[in-house]
Amino acid sequence: MAIEALAPAKINLTLHVTGQREDGYHLLDSLVVFAEAGDRILVEPADDLRLTVTGPKAAGIPADGDNLVLRAARMLGQAGQGAAITLEKHLPMASGIGGGSSDAAATLRALARLWAVTLPPAIETARLGADVPVCLDPRPRRMAGLGEILSDVPQLPPLWLVLVNPGVPLATPAVFRALTQKTNPAMPDPLPNWSSAMDLADFLRSQRNDLEPPALAIQPVIGTVLAALAACDGCLLARMSGSGATCFGLFASAASAASAACALAAGQPGWWVSDSAVLA
Ligand code: C5P
């Protein structure tokens, strides 16, 4: 019996850094959504634990014990418990859309079914990566603390995203280090109700990704990506996700997102471009 789990891209529509703990970790307040685009995890019974990485973005992904997928499997299973795991990689690596965390979360979901065990608490899964808890149940959420405090958000209007990654590496710790102002205002609590995609975009414009300025300072091409997205017909908002370098454009229709994606991919063949609906 093979079990499949999708590992959708995680998008931070906002990412406020509200403080820093004594151990150096940052406190966050983020509105998170998931795109239909993502990686795929397949687990099958096996005598030992093994990982195969396939797919268009497999190059450079380690299939050894350091991979978050295997670390997640070891966290969940008893010593010696086996599974053959296939990770089909479609998302660019280390790019601010939760690839590794989403893969780890999908692995936990699939293996919990294969092994008939319960999932560990959020605080424990957050040790794999700050985005793992929110990725365990991929739907729009507000994420706070280090990523382990999750709450529901008002119903989102139908939304489409165009994701663009310019193919430059950006290490999350370096972006946090380059952030000079560590204490910034949180989002309003409670969040308002949004009547349309336009209304949501107006709200988002009044909020921020605090990691965007430091990421831009390290990789100025992010500015080019944001300008290219913002110039597309129907783009309601262009912003960076997570610690970058992937940026997203927000659209009110599938057709406008698809034509923006087409135009961007044609204009910049070296960029990774993907359009998809936001998961409700
Ligand atoms: O948890 P994750 O692996 O995504 O974090 C990568 C790095 O980002 C951490 O080692 C830390 O330097 C930084 N980070 C942080 N505060 C957070 C999440 C991540 O400082 N809440």
From TrEMBL:
<feature type="domain" description="GHMP kinase N-terminal">
    <location>
        <begin position="67"/>
        <end position="131"/>
    </location>
</feature>
<dbReference type="Pfam" id="PF00288">
    <property type="entry name" value="GHMP_kinases_N"/>
</dbReference>
<keyword id="KW-0418">Kinase</keyword>
<dbReference type="GO" id="GO:0019288">
    <property type="term" value="P:isopentenyl diphosphate biosynthetic process, methylerythritol 4-phosphate pathway"/>
</dbReference>
<keyword id="KW-0547">Nucleotide-binding</keyword>
<feature type="active site">
    <location>
        <position position="131"/>
    </location>
</feature>
<feature type="active site">
    <location>
        <position position="10"/>
    </location>
</feature>
<feature type="domain" description="GHMP kinase C-terminal">
    <location>
        <begin position="205"/>
        <end position="265"/>
    </location>
</feature>
<keyword id="KW-0067">ATP-binding</keyword>
<dbReference type="InterPro" id="IPR006204">
    <property type="entry name" value="GHMP_kinase_N_dom"/>
</dbReference>
<dbReference type="GO" id="GO:0005524">
    <property type="term" value="F:ATP binding"/>
</dbReference>
<dbReference type="GO" id="GO:0050515">
    <property type="term" value="F:4-(cytidine 5'-diphospho)-2-C-methyl-D-erythritol kinase activity"/>
</dbReference>
<comment type="similarity">
    <text>Belongs to the GHMP kinase family. IspE subfamily.</text>
</comment>
<dbReference type="InterPro" id="IPR036554">
    <property type="entry name" value="GHMP_kinase_C_sf"/>
</dbReference>
<protein>
    <recommendedName>
        <fullName>4-diphosphocytidyl-2-C-methyl-D-erythritol kinase</fullName>
        <ecNumber>2.7.1.148</ecNumber>
    </recommendedName>
</protein>
<keyword id="KW-0414">Isoprene biosynthesis</keyword>
<dbReference type="InterPro" id="IPR013750">
    <property type="entry name" value="GHMP_kinase_C_dom"/>
</dbReference>
<feature type="binding site">
    <location>
        <begin position="92"/>
        <end position="102"/>
    </location>
    <ligand>
        <name>ATP</name>
    </ligand>
</feature>
<dbReference type="InterPro" id="IPR014721">
    <property type="entry name" value="Ribsml_uS5_D2-typ_fold_subgr"/>
</dbReference>
<dbReference type="InterPro" id="IPR020568">
    <property type="entry name" value="Ribosomal_Su5_D2-typ_SF"/>
</dbReference>
<dbReference type="GO" id="GO:0016114">
    <property type="term" value="P:terpenoid biosynthetic process"/>
</dbReference>
<dbReference type="InterPro" id="IPR004424">
    <property type="entry name" value="IspE"/>
</dbReference>
<comment type="pathway">
    <text>Isoprenoid biosynthesis; isopentenyl diphosphate biosynthesis via DXP pathway; isopentenyl diphosphate from 1-deoxy-D-xylulose 5-phosphate: step 3/6.</text>
</comment>
<comment type="function">
    <text>Catalyzes the phosphorylation of the position 2 hydroxy group of 4-diphosphocytidyl-2C-methyl-D-erythritol.</text>
</comment>
<keyword id="KW-0808">Transferase</keyword>
<dbReference type="Pfam" id="PF08544">
    <property type="entry name" value="GHMP_kinases_C"/>
</dbReference>
